[in-house]
């Protein structure tokens, strides 16, 4: 598995305000959206394209277009929804599938409660949106789900990641034959006893949408 921590002053600047406990939900949503677009730029570095030729007003020009099948963007409900617009802004022709997953707070295991995805993902490049890579359980379950339907490769875009989550994914998919990438704005220190990332930013879903 490949992990990329995007090292850019604008990413660091926006992330710092995102972490700040004084940042309100509307500002948090806007910053998360902007951050995702910056991360998506790096995350799509290997997106498949095909060669095309277009006519400029003066001459033919060689270029590229996104290859088919188009990429599939998969926000993990609920917090991943806060990353969807930032991602599709960069990939407007991508299709979007949904995975509803919840972490059981006592066992920290992921449970799937909703799926809305194509049955056949053969040849698809999938971009999973999950703001917090904490224990890695939710993301591992999502990646397994997508591979079971035939996905060609999976790139996870996470606002923050914990070393424990990266290690968990590394081990879970060790020796696998399909590429996995994690693109994140920062690799934080560790998890606390409740599986929250430290220093982190708290509960991403709550900060995006309020405590429900
Ligand atoms: N989910 C969150 O929203 N925050 C964390 O720190 C860990 C998991």
TrEMBL record:
<keyword id="KW-0342">GTP-binding</keyword>
<keyword id="KW-0808">Transferase</keyword>
<dbReference type="Pfam" id="PF14681">
    <property type="entry name" value="UPRTase"/>
</dbReference>
<feature type="binding site">
    <location>
        <begin position="202"/>
        <end position="204"/>
    </location>
    <ligand>
        <name>uracil</name>
    </ligand>
</feature>
<dbReference type="InterPro" id="IPR029057">
    <property type="entry name" value="PRTase-like"/>
</dbReference>
<keyword id="KW-0460">Magnesium</keyword>
<feature type="domain" description="Phosphoribosyltransferase">
    <location>
        <begin position="5"/>
        <end position="210"/>
    </location>
</feature>
<dbReference type="InterPro" id="IPR000836">
    <property type="entry name" value="PRTase_dom"/>
</dbReference>
<comment type="similarity">
    <text>Belongs to the UPRTase family.</text>
</comment>
<dbReference type="InterPro" id="IPR050054">
    <property type="entry name" value="UPRTase/APRTase"/>
</dbReference>
<feature type="binding site">
    <location>
        <position position="78"/>
    </location>
    <ligand>
        <name>5-phospho-alpha-D-ribose 1-diphosphate</name>
    </ligand>
</feature>
<keyword id="KW-0021">Allosteric enzyme</keyword>
<comment type="function">
    <text>Catalyzes the conversion of uracil and 5-phospho-alpha-D-ribose 1-diphosphate (PRPP) to UMP and diphosphate.</text>
</comment>
<comment type="pathway">
    <text>Pyrimidine metabolism; UMP biosynthesis via salvage pathway; UMP from uracil: step 1/1.</text>
</comment>
<dbReference type="GO" id="GO:0004845">
    <property type="term" value="F:uracil phosphoribosyltransferase activity"/>
</dbReference>
<keyword id="KW-0328">Glycosyltransferase</keyword>
<dbReference type="InterPro" id="IPR005765">
    <property type="entry name" value="UPRT"/>
</dbReference>
<feature type="binding site">
    <location>
        <position position="203"/>
    </location>
    <ligand>
        <name>5-phospho-alpha-D-ribose 1-diphosphate</name>
    </ligand>
</feature>
<protein>
    <recommendedName>
        <fullName>Uracil phosphoribosyltransferase</fullName>
        <ecNumber>2.4.2.9</ecNumber>
    </recommendedName>
</protein>
<keyword id="KW-0547">Nucleotide-binding</keyword>
<feature type="binding site">
    <location>
        <begin position="130"/>
        <end position="138"/>
    </location>
    <ligand>
        <name>5-phospho-alpha-D-ribose 1-diphosphate</name>
    </ligand>
</feature>
<dbReference type="InterPro" id="IPR034332">
    <property type="entry name" value="Upp_B"/>
</dbReference>
<feature type="binding site">
    <location>
        <position position="103"/>
    </location>
    <ligand>
        <name>5-phospho-alpha-D-ribose 1-diphosphate</name>
    </ligand>
</feature>
<feature type="binding site">
    <location>
        <position position="197"/>
    </location>
    <ligand>
        <name>uracil</name>
    </ligand>
</feature>
């Amino acid at each position: 598995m490949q992990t990329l921590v995007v090292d850019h002053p604008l990413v660091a600047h926006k992330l710092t305000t995102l972490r700040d406990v004084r940042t309100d939900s509307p500002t948090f949503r806007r910053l998360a959206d902007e951050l995702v677009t910056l991360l998506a730029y790096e995350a799509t570095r290997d997106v498949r394209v095909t060669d095309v030729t277009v006519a400029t007003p003066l001459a033919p020009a060689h270029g590229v277009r996104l290859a088919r099948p188009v990429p599939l963007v998969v926000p993990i409900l609920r917090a991943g929804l806060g990353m969807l617009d930032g991602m599709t802004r960069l990939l407007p022709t991508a299709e979007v599938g949904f995975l509803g997953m919840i972490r059981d707070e006592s066992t920290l295991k992921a449970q799937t409660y909703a799926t809305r995805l194509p049955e056949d993902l053969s040849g698809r490049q999938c971009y999973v949106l999950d703001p917090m890579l904490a224990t890695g359980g939710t993301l591992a379950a999502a990646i397994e789900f997508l591979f079971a339907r035939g996905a060609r490769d999976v790139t996870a875009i996470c606002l923050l990641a914990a070393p424990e989550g990266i290690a968990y994914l590394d081990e879970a998919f060790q020796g696998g034959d399909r590429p996995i990438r994690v693109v994140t704005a920062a690799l934080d220190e560790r998890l606390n006893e409740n599986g929250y990332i430290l220093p982190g930013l708290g509960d991403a879903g709550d900060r995006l949408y309020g405590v429900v």
